[in-house]
Amino acid sequence: MRGPHNIWRLIRTGATFERTGAMKLALEAMEVPPRLRVVARVLGWPFKWLGYAGDPALPPVTRALTALGPAYIKFGQVLSTRPDVVGAELADQLRVLQDKLPPFPTTVAEATVREELGQGVEALFTEFSEPVAAASIAQVHRARVAATGEEVAVKVLRPGIERAFRRDIDAFHFAARMIEALSPASRRLRPSDVIAHFESVVMGELDLRLEAASASEFAANTEADGGFQVPKPFWNLSSRRVMTLGWAEGIPMGEVAAIREAGHDCVSLSERVLQLFLSHALRDGYFHADMHQGNLKVAPNGDIIAYDFGIMGQIDEYTRRVYAEILIGFIRRDYRRVAEVHFEAGYVPRDRDIDDFARSLRAVGEPIFGMDASHISMARLLAYLFEVTERFGMQTRTELILLQRTMVVVEGVARSLDPNVNMWQVARPVVERYIHANLGPRALIRDLVRTARVLGRFGPRLPQMAEALLIRQSEAPPPAPRQDRGHAVALLLTGAIVGAAAGAALALF
Question: How far apart are CA 306 and CA 133, in angstroms?
């Protein structure tokens, strides 16, 4: 229920942000108008004593979110993929937000397995370890399947986690509505849409069948990718609260010294991780959107292993083509073509000057090309590009923001393995291969055939559909609905009731 009963949770949230020093930083990162910043600080200060202290060793915002619990930790992680909302600096801080929590007893996990899979652990597995990893939503046990002897990772949801998340998400929705009602200027950040996006991500992670489906689809897409592995799910040992995947044996990608000692070629690995990510994004339109070092391993044979498929990105075919044309335009330093692509795709309003836009793009690209290989950054290019497009009136596109954010993470992984990796040189063959396959004459013929098939399916209905459309266009528009004054009054009263909690609500953003 998204009602006033959420006020207490929001007051404690605001109090924690104020006590940890995160309130000021969060308001500045969100570029909240100065007057509202003062109001939030004044209203939040009296409740400071109610806030959680958190770990003083952590940065303020990370400290506050960690103290507030699993839902807030996960919210911070999701916001780290949205620099358009929280700003680049705060997004960088949130990207390293850790959700390592104390494990719950193995006996509880075993009871969950028995309840979900209909059999006890002793019947399904010959081995079932103590927790090897514990996060905000679930923990992982290493096990061996009784029927086949295969080593697997068994992921089990924390007890009561669904109810806890729903309670906090409920409070987030309430806060977003109040922020939009009390601060029209905040609507440009679309708080309700941000919470809806967060809810969709979390609800997917709380149903482990969906994560198993993501793993299965990702594994099928990448099956032919050399030097890359994705653990496949064991469907007969998975359910809503339990998921079983093949065990990923290897050295964590973050342990670079251990990777070198094992004899692996770090230069080759750095190039491969970047090219794999671009291939998945462009070729498949489905990519791992949380591809940091903690979710990657290097197998004994040198393969890269990816796991943890809670956050995946998806891009439609048309957007992939636009993105590829933008990248190849920058690689070839054809800024006029990059500008044309933005206008053709409708990303930039047509009333803007294309020549001015092309010059702005040149100002973005040329300084980067003047750098040496160790400083060339595709992620920096994309960040600058979004700044320019925003100035020219481009609307925020969530899927591109997520792609850009993941590119930053993947580039960081690549540079940790080889600080001198040349991003343009590594990316160019992947982008050119995609361009050749999807923007040439063969691609045009393929698109025409596909269009003909669609028209063929709807052929018998096309005359009726055209007639219905023409009739609707010729009809007089319906009268404008009268404003519901009762609803407006109720909203104002609710706003007045929660006015004292406005500072706490603003702290969520």
Answer: 16
Distances in Å between the Cα of 480 and the Cα atoms of 162, 469, 474 are: 42, 21, 18
Residue 460: half-sphere exposure toward Cβ, Cα within 13 Å: 1
Q: Specify whether the CB–CB gap between 197 and 78 falls below 8 A.
A: yes
Q: Are strands 242-246 and 151-157 parallel, antiparallel or unpaired?
A: antiparallel
Contact status, residue 14 vs residue 501, Cβ threshold 8 Å: yes
DSSP-based three-state secondary structure for 131: strand
Supply 459's token pair: 């052929």
Radius of gyration of the chain (CA): 25
174-188, 279-293, 315-329, 495-509: which has the highest mean pLDDT? 279-293
State how far the Cα of 334 lies from the Cα of 358, in Å rounded to an integer.
Answer: 9
User: Cα–Cα distance between 489 and 497 in angstroms, integer?
Assistant: 12
pLDDT at 121 over 90: yes
The residues annotated with a catalytic role in the active site are 290
Inter-residue contact 418 to 321 (CB < 8 Å)? no
Query: Measured between alpha carbons, how far is 326 from 407 in angstroms, rounded to an integer?
Result: 15
Separation of CA 214 from chain center: 14
Q: In percent, how much of the chain has pLDDT > 70?
A: 75
Global pTM reads 0.73
Best mean pLDDT range from 61-70, 102-111, 315-324, 480-489: 102-111
